[in-house]
């Protein structure tokens, strides 16, 4: 018995795969397929020019390559699909995978895959692989974008393509019929889709609150008292805006959760879809939270540099010099002020620490190392405690400022009041939800529904 037949007995023989087009994507895919044990056949306009192709691959003309395989990857841009038309008959009953992407969202009226299936009606067209980059295939760095979205009319053909994806280390996801191709083709073109809503909210809030502070802190005091404070634009006002926005965003992370729980309570069931806006909101909570954390970080840094600011040092020296001249020292330190100051620093530091913990545990690699219950515990219980501490920090600070300055005519600096509104609503609703009688009601609703579902199943 020679070595070859021995190999043949043990190695599962894979079917040949044809790739039309020897560009970046075609070559990278070919290399991966060869590594996974597939015989790879390239179809090219000039088969002689094959220096760059992965070792072990064969190159033919388009027609010759097509004849040698049942499954064909088309690694050519849509604008060049015309060359397929004369070859139409060679595609009879074969699986044709469209991997193409466009340059713009909704660039053409019909999806590339739909266009291809009109062009080559005899082929069974499957859309897929367009979200994987040639670079990722070649470098083997598939962690971040290992998902392959597959769609097509023929179930068997889709399975074939999904098997190939799996065997080269990708994770295929069935997206349904070819109608989904439009959406699949738009995926790689979307710019941070989950971040859009959080970004708009953050930008809007930041600008509004900044302008508001400029109005109150600069313009108002200039007009009323004639003091010019424009230097405050760079540090003092931003350090007012960051914590305010951060706290509002943190409130917005937990608001949809309590709203969803109340909605379930009101509807008496948890087996009904949430309205779309609530769904979208729930889906971007992690992003909202991470932006809030970034703003909290900025607040910490901006606070730490206060002692090295020129304006602060000037005030301090002046203050000491004035007292020396008068030959007095200030009356005894106010113990209550010291208490308040320490209180908001202590709560702030603890809140920030928990906030960091929340941020770290939301990263996939760490989230994956926890079970569902642990994740829920951290994100929900600790999250609400973080919200409570942060709101407490802001409230004590606002109270302190209120006692120390008379600058703000309407009592507390109004933007602090603003930042407390959403967290207070969330915390109040959460408190209601965890009171024993409401909690029992939620459990009853759940059990009732589970029983109903079960009896429904029994009848079937
Ligand atoms: N590059 C990437 O990271 C990704 C690319 N894709 C998709 O893969 C497809 C190929 O992309 P890519 O490899 O980057 O592009 P390239 O420009 O590198 O390669 C395209 C290949 O198509 C063939 N070709 C070009 N013009 C014609 C024509 N008029 N008629 C017939 N064949 C032609 C050529 O092969 P030959 O000379 O052998 O005939 C050429 O090498 C595109 O649809 C793209 O959207 C999808 C995901 C990622
Ligand atoms: Cu603070």
UniProtKB/TrEMBL annotation:
CC per GO annotation: endosome membrane; plasma membrane
Domain Ferric oxidoreductase: 244-387
Cofactor(s) the protein requires to work: FAD; heme b
Localisation: Endosome membrane
Transmembrane domains' residue ranges: 199-224, 244-266, 287-308, 343-361, 382-399, 419-438
Chemical reaction(s) catalysed: 2 Cu(+) + NADP(+) + H(+) = 2 Cu(2+) + NADPH; 2 Fe(2+) + NADP(+) + H(+) = 2 Fe(3+) + NADPH
GO biological process, one term: iron ion transport
GO molecular function: cupric reductase (NADH) activity; ferric-chelate reductase (NADPH) activity; metal ion binding
UniProt-listed InterPro entries: Fe3_Rdtase_TM_dom (IPR013130), NAD(P)-bd_dom_sf (IPR036291), P5C_Rdtase_cat_N (IPR028939), STEAP_metalloreductase (IPR051267)
Topology class, membrane: Multi-pass membrane protein
Residue span, Pyrroline-5-carboxylate reductase catalytic N-terminal domain: 17-102
Keywords linked to the UniProt accession: Copper, Endosome, FAD, Flavoprotein, Ion transport, Iron, Iron transport, Membrane, Metal-binding, Oxidoreductase, Transmembrane, Transmembrane helix, Transport
Family label: Belongs to the STEAP family.
PANTHER family named in the record: DUDULIN-RELATED (PTHR14239), METALLOREDUCTASE STEAP4 (PTHR14239:SF5)
This protein's name: STEAP family member 4
Organism: Callorhinchus milii
Encoding gene, per UniProt annotation: steap4
């Amino acid at each position: 018995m020679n070595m070859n037949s021995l190999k043949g007995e043990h190695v599962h023989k894979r079917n040949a795969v044809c790739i039309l087009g020897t560009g970046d994507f075609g070559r990278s895919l070919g290399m991966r397929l060869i590594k996974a044990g597939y015989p790879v056949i390239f179809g090219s306009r000039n088969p002689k020019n094959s220096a760059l192709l992965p070792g072990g691959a064969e190159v033919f003309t388009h027609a010759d390559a097509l004849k040698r395989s049942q499954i064909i990857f088309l690694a050519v841009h849509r604008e060049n699909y015309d060359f397929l038309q004369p070859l139409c008959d060679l595609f009879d009953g074969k699986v044709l995978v469209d991997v193409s992407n466009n340059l713009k969202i909704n660039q053409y009226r019909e999806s590339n895959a739909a266009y291809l299936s009109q062009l080559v009606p005899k082929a069974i067209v499957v859309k897929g692989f367009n979200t994987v980059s040639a670079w990722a295939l070649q470098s083997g760095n598939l962690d971040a974008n290992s998902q392959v979205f597959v769609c097509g009319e023929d179930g068997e053909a889709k399975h074939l393509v999904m098997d190939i994806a799996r065997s080269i280390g990708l994770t295929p996801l069935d997206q349904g019929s070819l109608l989904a191709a439009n959406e699949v083709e738009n995926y790689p073109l979307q710019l941070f889709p989950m971040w859009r809503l959080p970004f708009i909210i953050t930008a809007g809030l930041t600008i509004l609150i900044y302008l508001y502070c400029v109005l109150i802190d600069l313009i108002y005091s200039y007009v009323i008292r004639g003091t010019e404070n424009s230097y405050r634009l760079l540090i003092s006002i931003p350090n007012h805006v960051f914590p305010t926005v951060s706290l509002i965003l943190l409130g917005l992370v937990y608001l949809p959760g309590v709203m969803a729980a109340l909605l379930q309570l009101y509807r008496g069931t948890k087996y009904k879809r949430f309205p779309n806006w609530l769904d979208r909101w729930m889906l971007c909570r992690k992003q909202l939270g991470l932006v809030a954390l970034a703003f909290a970080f900025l607040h910490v840094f901006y606070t730490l540099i206060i002692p090295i600011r020129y304006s602060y040092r000037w005030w301090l020296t002046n203050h000491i010099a004035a007292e020396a001249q008068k030959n007095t020292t200030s009356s005894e330190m106010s113990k209550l002020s010291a208490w308040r100051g320490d209180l908001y620093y202590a709560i702030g530091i603890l809140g920030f620490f928990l906030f960091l913990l929340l941020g770290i545990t939301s990263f996939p690699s760490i989230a994956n190392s926890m079970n569902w219950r642990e994740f829920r515990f951290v994100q929900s219980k600790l999250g609400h405690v973080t919200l409570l501490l942060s709101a407490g920090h802001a409230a004590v600070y606002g109270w302190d400022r209120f006692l120390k300055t008379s600058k703000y005519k309407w009592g507390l600096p109004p933007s602090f009041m603003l930042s407390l509104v959403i967290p207070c609503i969330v915390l109040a609703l959460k408190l209601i939800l965890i009171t024993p009688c409401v909690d029992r009601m939620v459990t009853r609703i759940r059990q009732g529904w589970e029983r109903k579902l079960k009896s429904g199943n029994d009848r079937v």
